[in-house]
Write a structure and sequence with these properties.
Elements lengths: L1 H10 L15 H23 L11 H13 L5 H9 L7 H9 L8 H6 L2 H16 L4 H19 L5 H8 L2 H15 L21 H4 L7
Amino acid sequence: MLALAENCMIRQGENALDFLLNRTFSDDQLESAGQAFKDRGIIGVADSYFKNKVVNNFVDISVERKLYTLKRGFNSLPATKAAKIINGFEYNLTKEQVLQIFASYGLTRDLKPLAERYDFIDINRRVEQLDRLTKEKSDYEELEKTHGRYLAIRNYLLARRGSRETVIKNSGMGHGLFFYFWKSFKEYGLLGLVTHFPQVENGIISNYSLANCLFCIKLS
């Protein structure tokens, strides 16, 4: 996604971040992303990028909350048994769907090492906010702020060491806020530039699979 955004910047005549130019895109992808970038900045690129991706909205938030609580209470509970329990409340989830929900919170055996390093609740809240921003076209203030963070981080990466202080000053964020987002960006990629969606009960806010929750970790 960052590579796609970089292509949009190059088309506007900006200098390139060379390490992001190792991916190729179709003409249709570039045209769609370019228009989205012009209209809505970096969030527009995210929206364009996910147009043809699969998002698993197969379960309602109340079911996800029940499964999360169940797994937290019984850490060794297998997905097969969890599916049987939850389906006893007149739901109809497969073992694979239960596994996706568990995985999106780092609650599966294979993801325990990642869960020790990454805060999956934090990731999910950021994903929820990103999803909201791609859908709510009226939130121009938050769109502009997120795009401004993207430009500031990009300018910081392009700047020579002696001129980085100027970049921070021109970002309008101040040192503390800038380096907060810089740290988040290094950890989560583009997702790190998105603010948290408000916390709700038990910290559960979204119904995304692991692929959706971690898409930017791979870019960090």
